[in-house]
Amino acid sequence: MKNLKIATAQFENKSGDKNYNLSVIEKLSQKTANEGCDVISFHECSITGYTFARHLSKEQMLDLAEIIPTGESILKLTQIAKNNDIVILAGLFEKDEKDNLFKAYVCVDKNGLVAKYRKLHPFINPYLTPGDRYCIFEIKGWKCGILICYDNNIIENVRATKLLGADIIFMPHVTMCTPSTRPGAGFVAPELWENREADPTSLRLEFDGMKGRDWLMKWLPARAYDNAIYAIFSNPIGMDDDQLKNGCSMIIDPFGDILAECRSFYDSFATAILTPEKCNQAGGSRYIKARRPELYRDIIGQNHESEQNVVWLNSDKKNIN
User: Cα separation of 277 and 3, whole Å?
Assistant: First the structure.
């Protein structure tokens, strides 16, 4: 493997406006290509928008979703990738020929679709079907995987993706700044966003505290460190429907160190050069070799009924009703 230059991006998407969102993806892809990047990664549902989907009927979801790889958005991504000679990762809602709905994230290069992943733990809309497999693919000799947002909260998903060979895991999110049982969590007032030019300090304090970045730092570097992977975290900035998101898109190396991070309130990206040596030098690579699965194979694999409880979504439903 050779060194790989990756960009992680953030922008304020418009709900349901695929043309606008793709225009921003095109603009940022062109800029990063001009800086010599091989890859650019965008957030969860960066093409379609995300949080507004909690209000959509199945018919509305089917109108919004696309068949992959023949849908217009994939064709447009392929054109952008070809025009700029860059690999692009972005998210959207997917439908199949039987009208099943999925939360999808794709990797596209100048030749078309490279990989597609379906979120294992979707929740934003009741008509979404969970994915049933992990995704491993290559970008310029690097083994890569994808885990979308909540998928990364289940640590087994990250370890499984690593054990399948991934040295890079793309982690697209729409997260932070929502209520939780976690002390200090909660929504950030949209008024602070509207006043960000006059008073950036108040907004940054909210974004960087326990409602946002401080929570992220409790677990995200650990995922990279424990598994000796590069974690490519992408997250929107600004309003996503009626919720404010704080960006902080970043690239973390196998030592758990932040190589690059978006700190702007505007559409932006951060870049880093990934070197293969770190994947072997990092302690996580030694810990993986030292595993003793005979001790916990039956414990981890025992029967279990999955129960997914998204506190902010339940709270939101109560508020609506």
Answer: 9
